[in-house]
Design brief:
The protein is mostly helical. It is built from eight helices and no strands. Helix 2 packs across helix 3, helix 5 packs antiparallel against helix 6 and helix 7 packs antiparallel against helix 8. It is elongated.
Length: 215
């Protein structure tokens, strides 16, 4: 009985490694996904201990396999869907929705201004305002999916596009002297974004190296 249990643990440990590598994920990726430490994931994969049945079920659902696949001698690798592509498409659709709303406002205000004999030449600014709005959507989704690089890029673009959305209407309609000073504001914000990304990247790199050194 003890020997059979040992064999099951070894098969489970081997398959946990197999399915993780098939998904092109590191132990740290799985740890972050399921709120465990990378040490716990490493122990599972070395057969020192095993995740409980609820975690196993969650892992099976995540990998797109059944619970019994974890205990097969030669499990078959599933071709996992490209989640990054799916995330990009969802984000792009959401951002496009923002521009759809901007188009509705553009058309609506153009009709209203034309009907009331007001020059509608600035209604196109709705699209300028839509740029930072769409970037906020991108930040929300990239943060939700843990894509730090995309989040940092979206924040950087948001900082500059938001400044443009404030600067351009004022410059076109009621220009103020020294309005160009507005462009100084995004500089420290951009620097903070870069430092935040480097800090996050360095922390993850340190955790990965620590995990490799221990094993």
């Amino acid at each position: 009985m003890a020997k059979q249990e040992k064999n099951l643990k070894e098969i489970l440990a081997s398959n946990l490694v197999f399915f993780r590598k098939n998904a092109k994920l590191t132990q740290l990726d799985i740890a972050e996904k399921f709120n465990y430490s990378d040490k716990a994931i490493s122990k599972w994969e070395r057969g020192e201990c095993a995740p409980d049945i609820f975690v196993l079920k969650a892992l099976a659902d995540f990998y797109g396999v059944s619970l019994t696949d974890f205990f097969k001698d030669k499990p078959k690798a599933n071709k996992l869907p490209n989640k990054n592509l799916k995330h990009i498409i969802i984000t792009a659709l959401s951002a496009t929705l923002v521009f759809l709303v901007a188009t509705v406002f553009y058309v609506l205000f153009t009709f209203i201004f034309t009907a009331t004999s007001i020059d509608p030449k600035y209604t196109w600014l709705a699209y300028i305002v839509a740029i930072p709005a769409s970037l906020i959507v991108c930040i929300v989704f990239s943060s939700l999916w843990g894509n730090k690089l995309l989040t940092a890029i979206a924040i950087s673009c948001l900082v500059w596009s938001a400044t443009l959305a404030v600067y351009l209407p004022i410059e076109l309609m009621t220009p103020f002297p020294n309005l160009g000073l507005l462009w100084i504001i995004p500089v420290p914000l951009q620097l903070m974004t870069i430092l935040w990304f480097l800090l996050k990247s360095q922390f993850k790199f340190f955790k990965k190296n620590k995990n490799n050194d221990e094993h």
